[in-house]
Structure prediction request, 570 residues.
Amino acid sequence: MSKTTLIQPYGGSLVNLVVTGAEREALLSEASHYPSLQITQRNLHDLELMAVGAFSPLDRFMSKADYQRVLTEMRLSGGTLFPIPITLTIDKEDLPTRAEWITLRDARNDIIAIMRLEEVFRWNPQREARLVLGTTDPRHPLVAEMERWHDLCISGELKVLNMPKYYDFTDIRLTPAQVRSRLEQMGHDKVVAFQTRNPMHRIHEELTKRAAAQVGGALLIHPVVGMTKPGDVDHYTRVRVYKALVENYYDQKSTVLSLLPLAMRMAGPREALWHALIRRNYGATHFVVGRDHAGPGKDSQGRPFYGPYEAQEMMTQYADELGVQMVKFQELVYLVDEDRYEQRNKVPPDAKIARISGTEVREEYLAKGKPLPHWFTRPETAHILMEAHPPRHKQGLCLWLTGLSGAGKSTIAQALTSMLLERGRQVTLLDGDVVRTHLSKGLGFSKEDRDTNILRIGFVAGEITRHHGTVICAAISPYRATRNAVRKMVGEDHFVEIFVDTPLEVCEQRDVKGLYARARRGEIKGFTGIDDPYEAPTEPEVTVKTVDSTPEMSARQIVQYLETRGFLQS
Ligand code: ADP
Ligand code: ADP
Prediction:
């Protein structure tokens, strides 16, 4: 096929903010003398996409005039449709005085860009949330995040000196110009883009193939790999899925797979328009909008933030102006008897349908090691997802024993270790006393040192858990806040807090190491239970009472709990 001419970018041409060659060298040395601003991951994604023209015609973080009009009318000050505010915020104290240029740096302090400080203005998170997201409910992931942004917005000309560097999937991280050139080679002037932040199953294959057939052009599979909804499947796993699918099930001559480092806002209808506008810059003439596009789930009253087809309604209104036509779909469902997918409104009333939700994929299939059915997903996808999400009995696990000195933590931990090894789990035991001889050597028993000790154990436990290992931690860990911090580090789903509940008098009677006696004599200061507090867990996953049960009974009680949770196969 011969080369073709694609649709013009939105606003006529692609913005390019990237400076190269001698000019870049000169600016880099100046940049190191300008006042610095460290920008967030979200800012960095916005900047990166702006730099290569994905947000064309936008070429800077929004000025006050742009910002205000985008909020109320979804338009830049000049009238161009643009539904999402793109801002850079700064703390009042960090605002440089009398500087013409500032240097924007990433989290590692590397220079990314320089920006002319042309405008500073106040903004109001509640107002932005209300106007753009239609809600101020903190359950919305962006509302929660916006509370952490700073109180002033800054805007001005940008020169990008270093684009963020990636080392994963480098061959499919394409700029708008690169995607356009691939599409041109394919020879179609019509291009339908597909947005996703989830693994692609048969439903999505169906959506994309139907859309391409309907449009009669090329297909741009354009998954978001920047920031999506917290809790989504990580992009490494997803991209492995997309690659396997495109290689095995799509027409290579008319399909482009490219990754989009977008920081999503989960803004539903407004976001759908933004997605379409961005895809136009990559050469798309058509854009798939299905059910609940860019929806963030349910609010704190349990109601969905946006109606399932609200995004489609808004696209209908603005498609012509964007120059991107919508390919819309009702929710697709599987017709069991006919072995095919169909849109919900076309399903005969008595037809037998089947569906598996994202939550069911995780909890009913992957967590239990049950294979996903072929009608639902391709075997390649099932395999990659099962590898990334092993069943619960092969997932990482942190058993955290807390209690007074002499409560029985080490004794129970030893019994538990043997029982878990017997069941085929690989176990590391991090015993508080043992840890203090290497990992935490030199730390004492002040509140600060105790916290450091626990956080170190927590860090190691988190790493072991992340790599699907089992770790048993036995440490007094007297402070509730620190235990909760560790719970967060390890991850709620993999953390089992076990309260070894032994009354102080009993521990003191046992006094295995003679420490209580020394504490009573005042030879040891700040001893937990004597002159330093022990804050008992309020909602531990398991409580064992060593006065009523032997160490073996306690360990068996924990094993039983792990079986009911699926961490051990019963
Ligand atoms: P997003 O949050 O950006 O919408 P998803 O990966 O959930 O990302 O969805 C990608 C696209 O596929 C969206 O247009 C969405 O509406 C559509 N879609 C996903 N699942 C279905 C479905 N079961 N039926 C119809 N459309 C769907
Ligand atoms: P910790 O690790 O909590 O400081 P240890 O396990 O080192 O406690 O010490 C607890 C002591 O109490 C051990 O000597 C153990 O034999 C004894 N003990 C007596 N009864 C029990 C019981 N039911 N559970 C656990 N330990 C017990």
About this structure: The mean pLDDT is 96. DSSP finds 19 helices and 20 strands in the chain.
